[in-house]
Amino acid sequence: MARLNDEVGALLQEYSDLLLLTGGDAYRARSYEKAARSVGGHPEDLARLDAEGLQAIPGVGRSTAEKITEYLGTGRVAAVDALRAKVPPGVREIMAIPTVGPKKAALVHRELGVSTVDELLDAARAGRLDDLPGLGARTAENIVHGIEVLRQGGGRVLISTALALAEEIAAAVREASGCERCTWAGSLRRMRETVGDVDVLAAADDSAPLTAALTGHPLTAEVLGSGTTKTSVRTTRGLQVDLRVVPAEDWGAGLVYFTGSKAHNVKLRARAVRAGLKLSEYGLFEADGGRKLASRTEEDVYEALGLPWIPPTLREDRGEIEDALNGELGQPVTEQDVRGDLHTHTDLTDGLAPLEEMLAAAHRRRWSYVAVTDHAPNLAMQRMTDAKMLAQREQLQALQGSFGRMRLLHGTELNIDPDGGVDWPPEFLAGFDLCVASIHSAFTLDRAAQTRRLVRACENPYVHVIGHPTTRLLGRRAPIDADFDEVFAAAARTGTVLEVNASPERLDLGDELIIAAHRHGVRFAVNTDAHATVHLDNLRFGVATAQRGRLAAEEVVNTWPLQKLRRFLKADLKRAPG
DNA sequence: GCCGTTTTCGGCCCGACTGTTTTCAGTCG
């Protein structure tokens, strides 16, 4: 649904970047940036809007609407093309390096002719940046470090990006003649936090029409190789897609094989070998006679190996096979278990949708409760005030009952300052149903300071949830350095909930830290941190991450009924005496 | 370029931090 909107949003963002790189008016650039965000978070498909409808989107005026219309009609925007011709694409990539913005990117391009990240790295290491006005040795160091952070992503893309691509390709393959089934496998099906390439699996007797659907797809930029069972292409956005076609009767075996992980499969095959069997993408066979024992469904394959079906999100060889054998796999939390969201924003701060729209979208998800948690005043750019917050509370109270039986909770997202303190005095904090507290500044404090800061936030009796605890941004910002074992111990001791932030660019906590925190007996909340109604759909990424962290519904407080949740929020453990 | 209980011009998200400066520019949330 939102894919076209995201595409247009990306284009407007690019135009904004290009305006800044070419020394255009900063306010004009900001207009396009604002429009980009607004379009990306707009719930209606742009293709269904006329000029008037487009201009009704906040931040979209006549000029932006014309550009969108031009793009929808021709697939291009002349103004964007004109600027692209002036700025090599690598220069815009330079802007993505932390600590490098449009000014520095333009400077190195103009003065040194640097037009790729690699060239900038060379220049920084060779000391050639030191001669530029306003740049020194320290800047060069930061740039080198920034490039390292950027490269740790290793060309992988966000799960949301990969999923949108996979859905589109799979839909096209399903339309091909003779296609019986088609879905995606690989790390995308396991819902790893980032994806290196997309594996699409299809079932058909004749692969040719399916292959043609992929190689002829508008998203395909280059065919890397094509045979009867496997075809690989590079898409227009750089991501590789592998299509595998198996006979319908081997669907289950193929799905197990291509879902992985490699380590999970190795263990499955070893188990097969010990039982005198052989497991491949074509099925489970007797090792000697070659008779096929199972291949039609995943359940068949696992069952023939003496195992229950294991959810894809668990297939990482982290003990899931042993647990399955011992009957200790448990029931991972599912999207259906979630009864509400405890971290959402409205246009009172940096959200895009007004309160009523966010609540209506939450209600459509049939939630039992939702907490509205706009930013607190210490994040100065949000211009929060006591009066605004209290007015929102009144508005929320007035709306109570307007969305069926969905309970509206009033919360806030506090800012954890470098010492571990938060916005507002206790008497004001006491007025909220729920407080999320997050780090939004001072990301570079040393380990001891970050640890102390988070522990103190946990010890604050008014802080119920620590939001996006590591503050990482996948591929863009490293997690803060803290002794998370100590933080988890503090969270468990104080009854502070740790967030599994479902935003695909965060997924924070990630699966491994969830497992570590779980050992301490911590409770979790899977929250969307939605800044637009469409972001509520990100819940699935958070739930998948929780599954990968081996969480059951019971350990996730927003699967609890309202009464239980409210008792928990008011527990003496978290409240100061009196 | 967008927008209007400041309404067709003149503002626009504010403040901290960092590294380079000697009073400030760039970046970030």
Please write out the topology.
Elements: H1 3-21, H2 26-40, H3 51-55, H4 62-74, H5 78-84, H6 89-95, H7 102-112, H8 117-125, H9 137-151, E1 157-158, H10 159-175, E2 181-184, H11 186-189, E3 194-195, E4 197-203, H12 208-215, E5 220-226, E6 230-235, E7 240-246, H13 251-259, H14 262-274, E8 277-280, E9 283-286, E10 292-294, H15 298-304, H16 320-325, E11 340-341, H17 355-364, E12 369-375, H18 386-399, E13 407-415, H19 426-429, E14 434-438, H20 447-459, E15 465-466, H21 484-494, E16 497-501, H22 511-519, E17 524-527, H23 539-548, H24 562-569
Parallel strand pairs: 4-7, 11-12, 12-13, 13-14, 14-15, 15-16, 16-17
Antiparallel strand pairs: 1-3, 2-4, 5-6, 6-7, 8-9, 9-10
The protein binds one DNA strand of 29 nucleotides through helix 2, helix 4, helix 7 and helix 9.
Textual characterization of the structure:
- By secondary structure, this protein is an alpha/beta fold.
- The chain folds into 4 domains: 4-152, DNA polymerase, domain 1, CATH 1.10.150.110; 157-246, Beta Polymerase, domain 2, CATH 3.30.460.10; 262-325, 2-Layer Sandwich (Beta Polymerase, domain 3); 335-573, TIM Barrel (Alpha-Beta Barrel).
- The relative contact order is 0.07.
- The model has no long low-confidence stretch (mean pLDDT 94).
- The structure holds one DNA strand of 29 nucleotides.
- It is found in: Cytoplasm.
- Keywords: DNA damage, DNA repair, DNA replication, DNA synthesis, DNA-directed DNA polymerase, Exonuclease, Hydrolase, Methylation, Nuclease, Nucleotidyltransferase, Sodium, Transferase, Ubl conjugation.
- Residues 340-418 form the Polymerase/histidinol phosphatase N-terminal domain.
- One of its GO terms (molecular function) is exonuclease activity.
